[in-house]
Structures are given as C-alpha cells and as structure tokens.
C-alpha cells in the first residue's frame, strides 16, 4: 500500500483532500499543526477526521510569533474582505508568513522518515484569500526545491506533492466532498474559532459561497440555525 | 541598519558566517535549533557566540522524529567516513531529512516578521558531508520558491539568502574565521557532543583537516591535549 502524508488543518479543503487521498487507496499519515491560530478548534476537527478515515496522526506544535499575523494575534481584528490593506497588496492580514512553506517542509521530513511517496495539500488558487503560498507556481517551485534538497530527491525518488483542489472553485470542492462522503459537520473553516462560525470572516464567506453555489446545505450552518 | 537572520548552529561554519554578517554591519537575529541532535551542546556554543556579537537570539525546539537520522538517534552508531552506505548513495546516515529546508523556512518566517532583508546560512559544498541541502543548486531553488511563496517575495522585496562559505574549502573557512576574530574555542563541531571532540566523526575530521591545512591551531584541540 502506497504511503502518503496529508496536511490536514481540519478545514473544508483539507478534509476533502484527505477523503480524496483515502479514495485513491493511500496508507495515510495526517500532519496537523498547532501554530497558535485563533481558530485552534480546527485541530479538533482534524483529530475527528483522522479517526474517521482510520489514518495515523501527527500533531506538531510550531512556534509562530503571535505578531506574525492577525490569525495568530488575538489583539488585532480580523480583516473584512474589502479592507484597505487587501486592496493595496492583494494579501490580507490573515496571511501567516511562510506557513505553507513550513508545513510542507515538515511534510517532507515525515515523508522521508516513513518513506511516503506523496504529500497531499488542500491549497486552492481559485476561491481563496490571495495567499502567495497557495498558488500553482509556488507549489511547482517547492517541488523542484524539494527534489534538489532531499535524499529521496537526489536518489531519483522525489516526493510528489499533490494539490488536487488547486484549480477547483469552492462550489466544486463542496460537490467533490459530498461525493466522497466528507462529514462536513466535522470540518471547521471560521477564523474566529468560536462555538459557531462567525459568518463574517473571509474563510466563512468563501465557505458559505461554495455551499450556496453547489446547492448543498452546510450542516454547520444548519446547526447554528437550529 | 539593515536587518539579517543568521542560522547559527554553534559549529565552525555558522560561527564564521555570523562574524562575517556582523562585519558587513547587519543588525542580527540568530536562529538556533534544538532538534534533538546528539551534540546538543552545540546550542550552548551558539548562545555564547550570539552574546559575544551582541545579537538577538531565538532558540526553537523542532520535533524531528528520533529515527530521522543517526544524528538524532543515539541508539545507532555514527558512521565512519568510508562506510558502505556513504559509498552507495554519497549521503551518510547523519543526513537529517529536510533539515536545512525546515531551518530556512523558519528563517523566512522570522525575516518576514522582523522585516529582515537577508538570511545568512553557513552551508558549504566543498569540504562537506555530502548533504543535498548544502549545495548551491538547492539554495538557488529555495530562493526561487521563497520569492513565489511569501508576501515579501510577491511584493518585490524577496528575502536574499546568502551563503558566503558555499564555495570555500574548510581551510579557507578557518582562515576567514581567524581574520574575523572568531573565538574558535566557543564553536562546536563534533557530532558526539561529549566533553571533548571525538576526533573520529566526519565533522571532527573535516574540522581538523581545515585547521591543519590552514596552519592554524584549533583551541579546542589544544584544550583536549592540555
């Protein structure tokens, strides 16, 4: 059975990616990070999802300085979609410096240790927040760097990095999740990390838009409404 | 004053790199990693060196699984230079998967947080142990990846990664260190991490060869002899 590492935050996209990798028949180890994110409750979702697919799980504490991002600094407000900063740079304050670079680097480490040939990551460059480390050109460059900087790479067995959702709209991701029987109620997207989704942050808006366009009900929303 | 991150293990090469960056006039933050290496005493050297140049210091604990490498697994023996495995792959068992990839990724994170324009790393591809993540082609690929995957990169202010010792022989590194007044007695190279250098591991051999060829005495050796 081929081994794979799945980067699993516990959000919608990484959950769909996990179920996709499972469907492909991989022996999966999920990597989940506690990096001081204000919505740390997403890691609880990650635990639940890992259990449900009977995968192995590694949870890593990664020290991001709290001032890295509005996502790790609870003293700041989360940005609204139209904020001035986003208009200027295209990148919101929820950007966490080098986040996917660090996460993928750890995935490479674990892939080499357990001899996994693939790393799955749920990044998406269509309905996304404008983070540079979610784009195909970044992932291509990371893959090339990894092939040059690792033993597996220079031995001709470079780890493959798969981003099956890269070019999907959020609605397509929701539809794929439905097809793969992803338990949406056990995924968590909201940046605020309260008891229910805030329905205001960028992540909530993208999620709600996806479910609406797909014509599928979000069980998290229904729970809130109920 | 321009800011820089220096990756400082506490070994000879990173110490010389630190003093080189200092000479260049940077406001320096040293990043040192405790990754379960058997020669963890090198981090004590890193602390001392950081104090001596009056730099800021961040020490990060990074969870490398102990089975990653003979450098993190004290139940294995350290390889001798001529071991069968090295002959076969060119890479010794002291290789730690994705080590410099993870270290440089953290350096990128801190560079973005403190707005440092440069990262210094003491890698060397001449008198080295054959690690793939110490070669110029790797560093070039890492730089390209970083430019695409970070806010600084896409904003046209990509962090520069400098490896001033990349093409130097160990003797040239020793000579440069001497010129820069690096306190060699406060550097640590031996993989064993005992009270004195073992003088047998690959790292000890490379160091001893460098001092010998440079015609300079290694104060650590003299301490041992004394």
What does this structure look like?
Two copies of one chain form a homodimer. Chain A is an alpha/beta fold and 226 residues long. Chain A has one domain (3-225): HUPs (Rossmann fold, 3-Layer(aba) Sandwich). The first copy, chain A, has helices at 12-23, 42-52, 84-89, 99-114, 136-149, 151-154, 170-179, 202-214, 219-225, and strands at residues 3-7, 27-34, 56-61, 118-120, 160-162. Chain A has a five-stranded parallel beta sheet, sandwiched between helices. The longest helix of chain A is centred in the middle third of the chain and has 16 residues, at 99-114.
Give the overall form of chain A: globular
Q: Which CATH architecture of chain A?
A: 3-Layer(aba) Sandwich
Q: CA-to-CA gap between the ends of chain A? A: 43 Å
Per DSSP, what share of the residues of chain A sits in E-state strands of 2 or more residues? 5-15%
Reported for the largest beta sheet of chain A, the result is: 5 strands, parallel
Largest interface summary: A-B, 41 and 40 residues
**CATH class identity of chain A:** Alpha Beta
Query: Regarding quaternary structure, how should these chains be classified?
Result: homodimer
List keywords for this structure.
Rossmann fold; homodimer; five-stranded parallel sheet; 226 residues; alpha/beta
Short description:
The structure is a homodimer of 226-residue chains. Chain A is an alpha/beta fold and 226 residues long.
Tell me the layout of helices and strands:
The structure is a homodimer of 226-residue chains.
Chain A: E1 3-7, H1 12-23, E2 27-34, H2 42-52, E3 56-61, H3 84-89, H4 99-114, E4 118-120, H5 136-149, H6 151-154, E5 160-162, H7 170-179, H8 202-214, H9 219-225
Parallel strand pairs in A: 1-2, 1-4, 2-3, 4-5
Helix pairs in contact in A: 1-7, 7-8
